[in-house]
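Hey,
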Amino acid sequence: MAMHGMGRRSRRLACAVCAVLVLTTGIGRSEAPSDEDLSARMSRLEEINETLLRQNSRLEMEIESLNAAIQGRRDIPQGDRRNTVTAETGADQDAINLPQGTAAGAQANAPVAEPAPQWGTGAAEEANALDPTIQAIIDKLTWSKGDFRIVPFGTLECQSVGASDSVTGRAVVNFVNPDSAVSQPEFNIFGQTSTLGADFKGPEVLGMQSGGRILTAFVGDRPLLNQSTPLLVNAYGELTNENCRFLFGTFFPIISPLSPDSVAFAPGVATGNLGVFRGQLRGERYLRFDEAMQLTLQAGITQQVVNDFVPLAGLGAIGSDNGWPNIETRVALALGTQDQTTKERPVEFGLGGVIGQARAVAGDVGRVSDTWGIASDFRAKLTNWFGCKGEVYTGQALGTYGGGISQSLNVLDGAPIRSTGGWGEVYVKPGPKAMASVGYGIDAPLEEDLAPFNRARNEYYFGAVFYDVTRFLNIGAEVDYRRTAYMLPSTDNDAVVYYFRARLKF
């Protein structure tokens, strides 16, 4: 029966090839086609070519499954569930781009459960519902252990960063170093931003789908120190269904789920973008009022202090937790019809908050301060090719979230540093393979809370372009103008920063 089905599909391929020939040769036309007609033909030709690729991949999967069954190498999957990784053209959201959160209800960073084809009876109908190209890749890279399916993924990257003056780090550029006699242009090329991860999909538990993710980069646990050791970005388990989600482990914060579309490893951190992954236990509830409106409620307890991206020279982090976790919450309203691929709605507005405590371990040692912050985020896909997004925040002692230019406490008296900041961008997608974004970010701590040498203001303008050479190879380039102001006796400085990245996904 399966071989007979493959014969039917071969005939479909033959019909599709005939259609291509008709479109390309213009059989039956008595006059030269117009430019508009040629453009329409080319569009149709691309559609037919994609269909042929999908059908060919589906045939390969069936042949592999049948051969494996005959030789007894593995069982034929029956109605199991697989992970799918959302890919965003250009920005490539399935790979790491720090800090990066999850849009409410979208679960963009979480595995999305979709039914796998049941090989044998009804195979064609089931398979037609999926993207066979992605499914073929997943099938070839999926491991099984008991009731769990494991799908490895990752990126191999080469990134180069040049700057007209001295900037922090190599893989992570957050601000410009103070102007001095040793300030000079820089250029670095490295592969530290490559990533390696795995998605997990397990059995149903209490009527919810179990799963999780592990994701590692290679920039070290203190990226500004230019290490090349593993950095655990995500390591979480979850239970999900269409109405709620429970997550436990290391993940991105609740308060600020968005990130600029940037080539940089940690886009916008210390320039208005709160983020930085941390240990947490969270719950989410999705309330759908109709097909075009969803309310998302999120709450959780999260790690108060993480390893600072920007340790104070010679001291390391100058704050510690006070025996309590942070409490983070967010409420978001999403409008419009949900996209079945990204699981997002076109427009979303969010309001989040965090509260906790920090204890000084430098200056007035033992001084306890409140950590608090309020953040608002928005995103809008106005057309298929144009959109905008951004975040604003205000609060204090938010250095481990990247707020206050990554400064939480005053090193002299241990007092909290108050700050306000934000970022915004607009993006365009002129074609299915290309994307461009421009934006601005700023972080402005309250100067009366700062000590000498502290960073007093940090802002940048950025412009980035991305192009998918193939489904697996993406290139990106970016130019930033950055300016960082310092408390005396340090001197303000600015720089133009250039990025280039080649990324091979698997």
